[in-house]
Amino acid sequence: MNESLMNEGRTLSAILDIGEMLLRSGAEVMRVEDTISRLCSAYGFLRADVFTITSSIILTVHLPDGNVMTQTRRVRDRSTDLGMVAQLNNLSRKACEEKLSLLELQEETKKISERKPLPLSVSLICYAVISAAFSVFFGGNGRDSLTAAISGIVLCLSIGLLNKVRINIVIENMLCSAITAFAVSLLVKAGIGMHPDKIIIGNIMLLIPGIQLTTSLRDIFNGDMIAGLLGLSEAVLKALAIALGFAFVLIGMGG
Q1: Which of 113, 138, 155 finishes a domain?
Q2: Which residue of 86, 92, 132, 174 has the smallest Cβ count within 10 Å?
Q3: How many Cβ atoms from other residues are within 10 Å of residue 117's Cβ?
Q4: Nearest CA to 131 among 111, 116, 148?
Q5: DSSP label at residue 56
Q6: Edge to edge, what strands does the sheet with 47-53 contain?
Q7: CA-CA distance, 175 to 114, in Å (whole number)?
Q8: Distance (Å, whole) CA 234 – CA 21
Q9: Number of structural domains, the chain?
């Protein structure tokens, strides 16, 4: 393989890195494909054909010398990180406007991928405050909001623990909801909380895949039917898993 073809392969791989990170961060399929196509055009590829679904990206490009090159990327997990999506969007615009070198593009991509997540203490506070606020919003009292805050912290810790185990996301949601429901039941039986339904709904709001559902519907409206239906199915399965996790524990404990 000649040097020129190797460089083009590395460039294609760097572009796919950005597309993969976008898809893993919860970007809609249209955004992923548009970003990849614009980057391919900026880096001298004559034509780019991109096919993206929720778990895979296939990219075929036509090279200036007449050759055709294809690379694929398997995406095994997805989350919601709109901050990373925004940073990758800015990077792609910068790369298209300033024509960054391959090394610069790789370095900028690496910086974004290695950015530090929120400290655990901040995540715990956010989960506690949001759970308490939703509990009050849906009719809970002060004791319910306190219980929701405590169970929200339990939910945050269980999500972090199960993320390290790397199990199926549907099973993970079911286990997280079950652990949280168990904590709520214990807190109510201990006399801290009064209305388990008002407490649990505050926790459920943190698990509902609302952004994923919206993104999948947007994909469908944009004409990406396969990706949209896959995302919609995953969101529905997650919602069912959350409901079942809470229901099994509450029924088992006489809730």
Answers
A1: 113
A2: 86
A3: 8
A4: 148
A5: E
A6: 47-53, 56-62, 68-74
A7: 29
A8: 19
A9: 2
